[in-house]
Write a structure and sequence with these properties.
This protein is of the alpha/beta class. Helix 1 links the parallel strand 1 and strand 2. It is globular and about 40 Å long. Bound molecules: the ligand O=C(O)c1ccccc1NCC(=O)[C@H](O)[C@H](O)COP(=O)(O)O. The site of the ligand O=C(O)c1ccccc1NCC(=O)[C@H](O)[C@H](O)COP(=O)(O)O has 24 residues, from strand 8.
Length: 205
């Protein structure tokens, strides 16, 4: 069954929605330039309100590995998502600092990018359209090449996620912009997104 990651959650009410919907993962964005940025202190508070069965992913862009490891080892997050230009050397360094799992994000703009993603030594790969959290869809035809399980991201929403799951059977789908209205998470869109993925089809009502 395809897993679900609801990314860019920032508020206590988002935790309540997640607890009700039970995605496998939620994401906190620690990239300072993001409008979804949360401080480690905010994330720690939100994490306390989160059902412990749901894994919390920290999203980082070229962050100091020491800082990433600190959040993992303190238990504020369960996995780190590397969403910048992190290299294999960076991953090796992070492995020395923590045993927690890593997700490496790749921007899918060519078949070559997909091949490069497959070679990653991270525990998981995430295929996205670019910088992250932009709501932009990439050319899904590039996914025909891939032979490794992946998080499928980039512009997914309640209108296209059923097709994404049906055609590609990803390890998990990842959404942020598609479950927002006017820049904040929308509980009803979150609910619809989760229902569609779980049932494998679009809601009729
Ligand atoms: O959300 C952000 O602002 C962000 C900033 C920098 C790096 C990553 C970021 N978000 C990651 C995600 O939200 C998801 O992993 C993914 O990109 C899906 O986003 P969307 O296309 O908006 O559904």
């Amino acid at each position: 069954m395809t897993g679900i990651k609801l990314c860019g959650l920032t508020r206590l009410c988002d935790m309540e929605a997640a607890n009700e919907l039970k995605p496998e993962y939620i994401g906190f964005v620690f990239a300072a330039k993001s409008r979804r940025y949360v401080t480690p202190e905010q994330a720690a508070g939100l994490r306390q309100a989160l059902d412990p069965a749901i894994l919390a992913v920290g999203v980082f862009v070229n962050e100091d590995p020491e800082r990433v490891a600190e959040l993992l080892n303190e238990g504020i997050i369960d996995l780190a998502q590397l969403h910048g230009n992190e290299t294999e050397t960076y991953i090796k360094r992070l492995r020395q600092l923590t045993k927690k799992p890593l997700i490496q994000a790749f921007s899918v703009d060519s078949a070559q990018a997909v091949m490069q993603a497959q070679e990653s030594t991270a525990d998981y790969i995430l295929l996205d359209s670019g910088r992250g959290g932009t709501g932009t869809v990439f050319d899904w035809d590039f996914l025909k090449q891939i032979k490794r399980p992946y998080f499928f991201a980039g512009g997914l929403d309640i209108g296209n996620v059923a097709e994404a799951v049906e055609r590609f059977h990803p390890y998990a789908v990842d959404v942020s912009s598609g479950i927002e209205t006017d820049g904040v998470k929308d509980r009803e869109k979150m609910r619809q997104f989760v229902t569609i993925v779980r049932s494998g089809r679009r809601e009729t009502r």
